Every structure is written in structure tokens, then in C-alpha cells.
Amino acid sequence: MTPEEITAMAKEAGVLPSSPFVGVRPQDQMALVRFAELVAEKAAAQEREACARIAAGQWANVAEKLYGIECAAAIRDRGQKGGV
């Protein structure tokens, strides 16, 4: 997301004034960008964990379950290696 998109979303959410006459200070825009990054990281981590739980839990036999556990570990590792 671009800083402009983040600013527009913050205005839509009511975090910033939506008036075209009120500007956003650079330090506020940097803080909003960082906040958006943190939200995106948290959402990605939650989605990875949900996918890992599904991969680890839905199998008919032991061989499939072991493969599912491997898949779950690979999904979780994406977050450790900087993946989204």
C-alpha cells in the first residue's frame, strides 16, 4: 500500500480529518504507514496460523497426518523467514 492509500483509509475510518484543507504532517503519515505495516503483519500471521492448523488437522491416516504436519511447519516458517 502507498502512503497516500493509507492516508485515504485513515480519513475514511475517521482517524484523520477528511477535509481537503487539513494536511497530514510527515511524521503522522510515517506513523500511519508503520501502523498499517504492523496491522498487515499481524493479519498475515493469523492467516498463516489458521492455514497451518487446517493443514495439520484434516487427515485420514498417519502418513497423511505426518505430511500435514510438515505442511503446517512450512506455512509457519514463512513468517519466520520474512514471507507474507
Explain what the structure shows:
The radius of gyration is 19 Å and the shape is rod-shaped. The protein has 84 residues and is mostly helical. The protein has a domain at 47-84. 74% of the residues lie in helices and 0% in strands. It has three helices and no strands. The protein has helices at 3-13, 26-57, 62-80.
Descriptive key words:
mainly alpha, rod-shaped, 3 helices, single chain, 84 residues, 0% strand
Which spans of ≥5 residues are poorly predicted at pLDDT below 50? none
Computed over alpha carbons, the radius of gyration is: 19 Å
Helical coverage, percent range: over 70%
Distance between the termini: 14 Å
Q: Structural class of the secondary structure composition?
A: mainly alpha
- Tell me, what's the shape? rod-shaped
What string gives the helices and strands in order? HHH
Beta-strand residue percentage:
under 5%
Query: What is the number of beta strands?
Result: 0
Number of helices: 3
Q: If you average the pLDDT, what whole number results?
A: 86
Largest sheet: none
